[in-house]
Amino acid sequence: MKIGIDRVGFATTSLFLDLKDLAVARGVDPNKYLIGIGQSEQAVIPPTQDIVTLATQAAAKFPKAELAQVSTLIVATESGIDNSKASAVYVKHLLGLDDFVRTVELKEACYSATAGLQFAKGLIVLNPNERILVIGSDIARYGLETGGEVTQGGGAVAMMVTANPRVMVFGDTNVAMTKDIMDFWRPLYRTEALVDGKFSTQVYIDFFQACWQRYRQLTGRTLADFEGFLFHLPFTKMGRKALASELGDREDEVASRYWNILAASQIYSRRVGNLYTGSLYLGLLSALNNGQLEAGNQLGLFSYGSGAEGEFYTGTLVAGFENFIDHPDKFLDQRRQVSVAEYEQLFNQQLGMKSEDITFDVSNDPAEFVLAGQTDHKRVYQRK
Ligand code: COA
Question: DSSP H helical segments within the chain, as ranges?
Fold first, then answer.
């Protein structure tokens, strides 16, 4: 049975920061951000957006008739808004899904959307008629004036998983690996992550190599069997580092194909920043929209979550995939640019750990789904 991704939707906020402005404010050469890190813009998160509103916005792009058939909703996130209640329950409500639906939240840093897709595949093997909605939704927060600040961002990627999918069919062999490593974590008492940044980039590459080499051993397949690889992109340079670990200074047709696909996959991440769980899938969306890809092309996908877990798997593109994916260029072009001062103000206004009642002014947020505040320790969401 063919199982895979049937639709892809993407949402981010309507605000962005030009990283040249951030570089000037932080006294850094802009080329460090633009070239050294590979980021040019960053989504700025107003207090009226969180992982629930972003996840809902991404999935609300799907036809209502298809949403009405969803049997399981999985929200993957590492920036959850509650230590007990799953964000998927709020998303289910805002999307107006049927009450007879299974909802759950998954966590393992930036990796868990990939686990969600695998679990969805298992559910469809059990019942091919099921329609599983998997959403990776996150806000990447490292803190003002930290080393990770330039790699912040936020947004959500929603994927419908079905039998006979119309975007990408999952391959049969997956390689997942886990090791207990402290490269990035966020204790319960913090809203910003703690990260050993350089260490995390090395662990990422080690996991990519270990998963890919094991995949090769298991299947006998080589680079020549794929159109290219897609990588989790915490910042776009990370994908370049990972691919370079495999290609080295190889300069043949295969290598140039891989570099072209990587470049196409980096376009949206360069403008939005890190989506944590959604980043690999924003890369997929970017490659589908901007790469020279066609039906039958095979892609390798490397998912990585600090802590640490990696997974390498593959997919084959389906004819007409472009009709079932989001095309976010126009939305990204129409976002409002904010100054560094406004970004800092919005950063500090986020609900975070605040326990008091609060009402946010939602009139400036053009999004359909907004966080209007908090009453009696309960988040208040609104559909405009
Ligand atoms: N022009 C061009 N490139 C420049 C430059 C300039 N003026 N100044 C510096 N650079 C390059 C550096 O050579 C380096 O390149 P390299 O990584 O290829 O060696 C790159 O910019 C980053 O510089 P560095 O000094 O290493 O940056 P940093 O100490 O600020 O750390 C991160 C960068 C990514 C580690 C940091 O932003 C971080 O911790 N991010 C979050 C962690 C993360 O996302 N981890 C990923 C795994 S999930």
Answer: 19-26, 30-31, 51-59, 64-67, 87-95, 112-126, 197-219, 236-247, 253-272, 279-290, 329-333, 340-349
Choose, from 110, 130, 227, 309, the residue flagged as catalytic: 110
Q: How far apart are CA 189 and CA 351, in angstroms?
A: 14
Query: Which amino acid type is present at position 236?
Result: T
Is 193's pLDDT higher than 90?
A: no
Residues 138 and 117 sit within 8 Å (Cβ to Cβ)? no
Q: Is residue 110 flagged as an active site residue?
A: yes
Does the C-beta of 350 come closer than 6 Å to ligand 1?
no
Residue type, 211: C
Where do the domains of the chain lie? 3-168+326-383, 169-319
pTM listed for this prediction:
0.98
Beta bridge partners of 110: 108
Is residue 35 lining ligand 1, measured as CB closer than 6 Å?
Answer: yes
What CATH number is given for 169-319 in this structure? 3.40.47.10
pLDDT on residue 42: 98
Q: 207-265: per-residue pLDDT in tens?
A: 999 999 999 999 999 999 999 999 999 999 999 999 999 999 999 999 999 999 999 99
78 classed as catalytic: yes
Beta-strand pair 168-170/15-18: unpaired
What number does CATH give the domain 3-168+326-383?
3.40.47.10
**In this structure, what are the phi and psi dihedrals at residue 71, rounded to the nearest 5 degrees?**
-100, -25
